[in-house]
Amino acid sequence: MKVYYNLNLSGFSNCYLVANESTNEALLVDPGEVTEALISQIEDNHYKLVAVLVTHNHGSHVKGIKTLEKIYSPQIYAADWEVAGERTNVITGDGKVKVASMNVHYMAVPGHTSDSVVFKIENLLFTGDVLFAGTTGSTNSNYSKVILKSTIEKKIFTLSDDCIIMPGHGPLSTLEAAKQFNYDL
User: Fold this and answer.
1) pTM for the whole thing?
2) Which residues are CB-contacts of 72 (< 8 A; sequence separation ≥ 6)?
3) pLDDT tens digits, residue range 60-77?
C-alpha cells in the first residue's frame, strides 16, 4: 500500500490517494478539490481509481467528486446519500468493505456531523473531522461533543497505539499521541 497526500487549499483540508501497488487499484479519501497534482499521481502511476471514501458531507471534503466522476467511474462510499445521490453506496454503523482489493473497515463516529465516518485501512485511520493531532472536531452543541468524545473513546481508543491518524485537516498523528496529549480528551 502506498499513500499520497494532497492539500485542498480552498478548504485547507487533506485528501489522500491510497494505492494498492499489487493491483494498481486506488481509492481517494475526501476529495475536496481535484488538482493537476492529484490527477498526475493517479495517471503517472497508472492507477485505476475505483472508489472514493467520504468521511462526512462538507464541501471541503466532497467538492471534487463531481469532477472525478467526469474522468473516472469510482464507487462512492459515504454515510450520507446526498454526497452523490444514487451513486452513493450508503454505509451505516460499523462494518467492512473490500475496496481496491484492500479491507476497509468503517465506523460511525457522530458528533462533528451526524454522518461522520472513520475509515481504517491496515494501521491507517482516516478520521476526517472527528480526530486531529491534539484535538477533536468541532460540534454544534455540548450534547454532540459528549457523543463525539464517548464514541472516540469506545471505538477508536480501543485500537492499537501504532495506528496513524490521517485527519481531514492538519498534520498526521498517532493514536498513542492522541491518547496521551489530546487536549479535548
Assistant:
1) 0.97
2) 42, 49
3) 999 999 999 999 999 999
